[in-house]
Amino acid sequence: MTVFLPKQDVFHHSSVPETIQGLSRLLKSRVALPCSPIGLEQFLSRNPLYFRDVVPFLWEQAKESLPLIEPLQQVERMELTQLEALRILVHSFFCSFDRDSHRWREYPSINMDRMFIEPSRIYDAKLTMFFEYFSRQQKRWEAGDVLDRKIIFQLQSSSKTWEDWGGCTKRLHPFVVHPLKASIDDAKDAFRVDFANRYLGGASLSHGCVQEEIMFVLCPELNVGRLFCAAMKDTQTIVIQGCEQFSLPKGYGWSFSNGGPYHDPTVTVDGMLQSHIVAMDAVDYRSSFSQDQYSLPHMLRDINKCYSGFCMEDTPDVIATGNWGCGVFGGDAELKSLLQWISASMAEKSISYFPFDHEVIAEKYGSATEMAIEKRLRVCDVIQFVSSIDPQISVARQFVAWVRNQ
């Protein structure tokens, strides 16, 4: 049986390092860093209260035992408390897990060592956000909060056939298009889509600073799943519930920086914060033939991928999503938005679409999808449409014409 255990001996047999350099030597010995963690040293030197007040708290938490943690692929559902999540991330900070952060195999990295090596504005922003989380949880703990709110990771899968989808007579559900530049992260009450790497979190613990990686540093508890979530298969998604946001972002990509603390107003129901996220990875067409995405096997893969997460019970009826798998991955947003709509309608949920910078979707899809619903079109109708798409012509142009002719 595979279990994930941190190396804890040092916390029981040694005192917390008295200097930043002492902490650096400890970290270097734990993960065989090629050089001193200069980035972390400079960060803590600029923020001495983190080293003086927060690091000793983390050291004490690192002494405590963790629950039995098995691979999500085996147990399918992992329920943790906020306190257990905190202790996992404490060990992530102290690099306690026996896992290579540079050469990923079945699992992504979990230790934070890649953020420690060199000074970087991106790493500085991320460390600030993690320490905002650590210090906030410390204050709560010391004030008597036992941090027992639930956090759930659920592995979902779907293997429906093209015939299954072609025979679905469920009516299409609403597809609401938001203005350009509006953010999925503002849809706190919705079931938000994480444009995921197949390795959960992607480069959240290193240089990454696009949608998924930013989400994972705003809500540090999401990173806990990196410990026990293997790379997703084509039929799988991971639904994450109950994670809290502690920071605000500023900028995007290489302009990303810390936007300051955030106090999450999301309500708690039955011991869980009502935050619902589905992590789903798209095919990267940079290293393959991009025309493949219009083939039936590739569309079936995407529809099943989306549906596996969207159909999760006890999640909001509105899915907040956008240009999933597009941008650098080379996906066609005009196609993938329709595939997500198909999956959501099968799950009897509506789409709240954030086109970000895609003007065609912003201008055409709101009215076209509304017309499709007025005409009482069904999932099987849109399946028939996407199966006949001409890749040489704009999908939006074909879709609008098709709806008008129904």
Topology:
Elements: H1 9-13, H2 20-31, H3 38-46, H4 48-62, H5 72-75, E1 77-81, H6 82-93, H7 121-142, E2 150-157, H8 162-166, E3 175-177, E4 191-196, H9 211-218, E5 236-241, E6 247-250, E7 257-261, E8 268-269, E9 272-273, E10 276-281, H10 296-310, E11 318-322, H11 333-346, E12 350-354, H12 359-374, H13 379-386, H14 395-405
Parallel strand pairs: 3-12, 4-10, 4-11, 11-12
Antiparallel strand pairs: 1-2, 2-5, 5-10, 6-7, 8-9
Could you characterize what this model shows?
The protein has helices at 9-13, 20-31, 38-46, 48-62, 72-75, 82-93, 121-142, 162-166, 211-218, 296-310, 333-346, 359-374, 379-386, 395-405; strands at residues 77-81, 150-157, 175-177, 191-196, 236-241, 247-250, 257-261, 268-269, 272-273, 276-281, 318-322, 350-354. It has 14 helices and twelve strands. α10 (296-310) crosses α11 (333-346). Strands 1-2-5-10-4-11-12-3 form an eight-stranded mixed sheet, with helices on both faces. The protein is elongated, with a radius of gyration of 22 Å. It has 406 residues and is of the alpha/beta class. 38% of the residues lie in helices and 14% in strands. The protein has a single domain (9-405), classed as Leucine Aminopeptidase, subunit E, domain 1 (3-Layer(aba) Sandwich), CATH 3.40.220. The termini are far apart.
